Amino acid sequence: MASKTVAKDIITLRGSAAIVSEFFGYAANSILYNRGVYPEESFVKVKKYGLPMLLTQDEGVKSFIANLNSQLSEWLEAGQLQRIVLVIMSKATNEVLERWNFTIETDSEVVEKGVSREKSDKEIMREIQAIMRQIASSITYLPCLDEACVFDVLAYTDKDVAVPFAWIESDPKLIANPQMVKLHSFDTKIHKIDTLVSYKNDDWDEQ
Amino acid sequence: MIVRTPPPKRPRSETMHPDSPSAAGSDRRMVIYEDSPLAAPLHESPQQHSDHLLCTYQCRQMVKSEFLDALSSAEKQVCDYQSRFETMNENFGKVEAERKKFLDQFLYAEQELAAAKGREQALQEQLLKEVNDYQERFRRQIQSQSDLECLHQKNEVEQKLSNFTFQEDSSTDSNILVKHLQEELRNYEAEVREARKLRSSHENIELLKEKLLEEKVRKERAEAELPKLQEFQMSMKKLEDELSSWKLMISEIPGVSCSEDIPVKFAALQKEVIDSTMKVGDANARLKQLEVALDAALSEKQNAETEAALVKEKAAVSKSEVKRIELMLSMVTEERDKLRNLLNEFKKMKNDEAGEEVASGTLVQELESSLAKKEFCIKEMESSLHAQKEVNTRQYEEIKLLNEKLNNEARKIKSLEREGDRLRSEIALLESKLGHGDYSAANTKVLRMVNTLAVDDDAKQTIEALRTELQKTKEKLQAVEELKSQSGDAGTLVDSYISGKITQLKEQIATLEKREERYKTVFADRISVFRRACCELFGFKIVMDEHQRSNGIPVTRFTLQSIYAQSDDEKLEFEYESGNTTILANDYTSQPEISRQVEIFIRKMNSIPAFTANLTVESFNRRTLS
Fold first, then answer.
1. At what angle do helices B261-352 and B46-166 cross, to 10 degrees?
2. What is the CA B302 to chain-centroid distance, rounded?
3. Which of B448, B458, B461 to probe the A interface (max A CBs under 10 A)?
4. Tens digits of residue pLDDT in B325-357
5. Mean pLDDT of all residues in B185-190
6. Which residues of A3-18 are buried (b: 16+ CB within 10 A; e: fewer)?
7. What is the Cα–Cα distance from A56 to A41, expressed in whole angstroms?
8. GO biological process annotations for this chain's record (chain A) (predicted)?
9. Nearest-by-CA chain B residue for A158
10. CA B594 from chain center: how many Å?
11. How far away is chain A from the Cα of B563, in angstroms, using its nearest Cα?
12. Which of B3, B435, B457 is facing A101, going by the closest CB pair?
């Protein structure tokens, strides 16, 4: 959603925030589909970032992600968001099995002075595409989730951020002794997103 | 931490000195480090010595890296153990709190059950008594009725008999009549008895039905509470199993026999960790010192090598000079010999040809000129040699300076490499922390949305469950209504019987309530008279109220205020529970005089009346004196 001028490459803070929150929405859907948190038949295929992406049709999940994205956009525009973590937990035991970590570095000059930056939309789309491909291929090395799972989203914000309605402070839901895999990152020149997945050591792998 | 891009590889070590050609060509083979290089044979060549030192350095580097790896893994393990221990402690605390909570709940439920049972029993006894009273009254009434009937019949019979006595003339007919009447009377009496029996049996049946209903209700209540009890028992068992598993885990930890030893063990482990880190720090410092010394030794060795090479060069140069000089000398001696031979020949010629003195003079001049030329050449060569020597010394000094610069640069490179390794390890550590999810609480807070899907799912499930229950109850209600409609007359009879019973019971309830009100007013009157009398007789206003302790047990509290009290704060508080009275502490009893009296009369002599009497006398004395 970059603001179009004659050059077609200028990116504003609002545009960058929209790109990042949209990316998170699609990434979350992809993770939920690939990790089998929701059944395959509840997803529908759409075209995005030059790839076939899967979006959930479950109304509850859709509204949850939509509300989440609107709040994330707000925080991104204010430069108050440091990290977003999508946590996958066992439904029975509430044990955290996977953490999809999206670290955000914000250009503070853009937030303070309201300047814009320049970067090709194609370049950004290519970088996001690489990350989406990596998420899809993560099933080759991530352990199987044999039990019913639920997901939750944590937002690491600045300390002075006012807690919005329908949000509460939470523990970071860490995994003890995780295995970590660093994925690609993408940069809008205003927000730089690094992706990392940490998962619980599979007992079978430890043998 | 597994990273997608491995850290950049360090370039091969640049410690290979460019001026050490002998070392450059040697193989860097790995040899086991030997403690005493001085014990090596004296004829060991410099090449092997350099290899030995290099090997020592590499081995030490390997040892150092292994040590550092082991230390980092040990530190990680310690951190893991610490975190696990903290989670275990937290879980243990939570489990303990839950267990206590469940125990309290269980005890409370038991107490409630016992209290409910007691109340039920009391109610049942009361009901039984009332029913028995009613039964007796009813029997008396029936008896009186039957007596009345019998009397009436007797009177009739007697009248008949009296009528019959006027007709004494009739003989057997009247006797038969009398007998008939007597039989009828007996039959009536038998019928009355049977009726009474039927009535009593009917009453018994009704009583039994009521009892059956009560028992059913009690049974349902008990059955309803049974699963709760079972749940409590299950949860208790689970908690006990968890506790035993925690205790087993505690027993597995070496040096820990009970939960109280855990903090001590943890403190000991922390001390060990601190000591080991201090030792590691010392070892690191010593290692660095050794490295610096090693570097200095290497640089000295390199300097020595360069000097040796220079000396060799010098020796070679001097050898070449010597050779050259020898060559020159040989040339000069050859020339001298030639000249000598020439001179001898000349002398011969002189002897032979005296007349050729002029020619000999020119020969001598030519020889002298050639000698002068040679001397001139020699001088030129000497001057060039001198110049060459100066150039060589200048070059040698330049080489020395360059060597020193090279050594400094090599040292700088090594220090930068070490710095780079340290920074890389720090980066790896920070990346692992970042990936793990750690954050600084001073700058960051973690938020999540409340309206999660799990909550929605739970709400949906409860809504569905409630809907199914509602459907079931509706179906039951429909079935009951259908049954009612089907039963028809029997239903109306049952309804009228039930409604009659209900009106009867309502009337009974109304009379009982009126009686209760009357009892209450009478009791209130009597109790106020009693309280006033107690106040007048014993000098204390007594206020009684019921309290409930935190564990749910009801206790009776008495607040006493002396009629001679000089302020409203002078109050004594006592708690009464199952025959035991205990004094409660408050501001008044914590005063030194009162607390002394409490100590003497209540704690030591165990007499509350003596305490209150003494207090009354003292208050009276104070009042009268003031």
1. 170
2. 60
3. B448
4. 778 778 877 887 887 888 888 788 777 766 566
5. 85
6. eeeeeebebbbebbbb
7. 9
8. cell division; mitotic spindle assembly checkpoint signaling
9. B444
10. 48
11. 58
12. B435
Alpha-carbon B45 to chain mean position:
65
pLDDT at res. B31? 36
Instruction: Confirm or reject contact between A18 and chain B (CB < 8 A).
Output: no
DSSP, residue by residue, B19-50: T-HHHHTS--------S-GGGS-TT--HHHHH
- Cβ A198–B436 below 8 Å, yes or no? yes
- Contact (CB<8Å) B437/A177: no
pLDDT band at B114 (very low <50, low <70, confident <90, very high): confident
Candidates B413, B408, B417, B422; CA nearest to B296 is B408
Are A101 and B434 within 8 A, CB to CB?
yes
Is pLDDT at B18 greater than 60 in this prediction?
A: no
What is the distance in angstroms between the Cα of A159 and the nearest Cα belonging to chain B?
A: 5
Interface test with B, best of A159, A163, A194 (most B CBs within 10 A): A159
Side-chain-facing half-sphere of B470: CA atoms under 13 Å: 6
CB A54 within 8 A of CB A135: no
Q: Do B449 and A64 touch (CB under 8 A)?
A: yes
pLDDT at residue number B359: 67
The DSSP result for B467-535, as a single string, is HHHHHHHHHHHHHHHHHHHHHTHHHHHHHHHHHHHHHHHHHHHHHHHHHHHHHHHHHHHHHHHHHHHHH
Report pLDDT digits (tens) over B482-506.
876 766 555 566 567 677 878 888 8
* d(CA A48, nearest CA chain B) in Å: 26
Write out pLDDT tens, residues B123-169: 888 888 887 887 888 788 778 777 766 666 766 766 766 665 555 54
Q: Do B445 and A183 touch (CB under 8 A)?
A: no
The per-residue pLDDT for range B256-308, each reduced to its tens digit, is 777 778 778 878 888 888 888 888 788 888 888 888 888 888 888 888 788 87
A178 touches chain B (CB under 8 A): yes
CB atoms within 10 A of CB B198: 10
Count H helices and E strands in chain B, helices first: 9, 5
Q: How confident is the model at residue B48 (pLDDT cuts 50, 70, 90)?
A: low
User: Minimal CA–CA distance to B56: which of B284, B265, B254, B291?
Assistant: B291
Backbone dihedral angles phi then psi of residue A180, each to the nearest 5 degrees: -125, 140
| A62–B contact, CB cutoff 8 A | no
B interface toward A at CB cutoff 8 Å?
1-5, 80, 83-84, 431-432, 434-439, 441-454, 456-457
A155 and B3 in contact by Cβ < 8 A?
no
